[in-house]
Amino acid sequence: GGTPLEEGINELKTRELAQKNNIKIAAYGYSKEVEIAKRLQQIIGKEVMDELTFVSSHERKNFLTDKLGDREAELYELISSKMIEKSASYFDKLSQVNDPFEKAKLYESVDYGEVYQIIDNYKRRNYSH
After folding, report:
1. Do 30 and 11 touch, CB atoms closer than 8 A?
2. What is the pTM of this model?
3. Is the predicted pLDDT of residue 129 greater than 60, yes or no?
4. 3-class DSSP state for residue 95?
């Protein structure tokens, strides 16, 4: 974990492993981040995402460049930085809130619309013929 995207990837991998091994978990944390991780996994592939999970944060861009190329590495960096930007207010306020219902309401305010647009633009540029 550490960044919203890394949290989403970790939670996605946790859910996949739990499902594969028929382990019941409460799969509701980081739902927005997991959705973005799923979309990124569709682009870079499950095998690369599985490996990426175990690559340290500061080595991820180089790893993706080596595996897939500059575009995908830059996409990862752009998604990650935009998610940090869009969730900054949430994380700043989170430590000041104890009530779980207030935390849920605060989480609802996180809007990753621009991240979805980045992913859609990438797909349009790279998958259209």
Report:
1. yes
2. 0.90
3. no
4. coil
